[in-house]
Amino acid sequence: MDLNGQIRQAAFHALRDLFMQIESTDVELDPPEFYALSDPMAARDNLHAGEVNAALYDLAADISIRWIPKGVNIARKPGVPVISPEGVLSPANERLSELLASIPRADTKERERWRQKVMRLLRPGAAE
């Protein structure tokens, strides 16, 4: 938009063309390391569900999480863990369940240490 509130046609066309290019590009998705069942309303009545959701977004910077909205059924790859909004894992993983049960507050040193523990558990051979 220019100072008069008019659409700048050149910029508009450039953005439109870019989005058309993005939409027409075939992208190979990383295989999921987790499926996360997403229920945004769960966090309204359950603080821990909000903590789990925020922690998964934090972890998604480094691991591939496939988000599944509540009520949506998709084909899932066998053996890939599923995390419920409350942090319950299927199949069960005792150590990861313990970590998901005690998520430190975001933007703290404790949260960074927690995140490192989770990453070591998920990728034991990877360097930090």
First-to-last CA distance: 44 Å
Query: What is the spatial order of strands in the main beta sheet?
Result: 2-1-3-4
Count the helices. How many? 5
Broad shape: elongated
Class from helix and strand fractions: alpha/beta
Query: Percentage of helical residues?
Result: 40-55%
Uncertain ranges:
none
Strand content: 5-15%
Mean pLDDT: 89
How many β strands by DSSP? 4
Order of helices and strands: HEHHEEEHH
How many strands, which pairing sense, and closed or not: the largest β-sheet?
A: 4 strands, mixed
Radius of gyration from CA coordinates: 19 Å
Structure description:
- It is built from five helices and four strands.
- It has a four-stranded mixed β-sheet with strand order 2-1-3-4, covered by helices on one side.
- It is of the alpha/beta class and 128 residues long.
- It has a domain at 34-122.
Q: Concise description?
A:
The chain has 128 residues and is of the alpha/beta class. The protein has helices at residues 9-24, 42-45, 47-59, 94-101, 109-122; strands spanning 34-38, 65-69, 82-83, 89-90.
Topology:
Blueprint: H1 9-24, E1 34-38, H2 42-45, H3 47-59, E2 65-69, E3 82-83, E4 89-90, H4 94-101, H5 109-122
Parallel strand pairs: 1-2, 1-3
Antiparallel strand pairs: 3-4
From the structure above, extract its key features.
128 residues, alpha/beta, 4-stranded mixed beta sheet, 43% helix
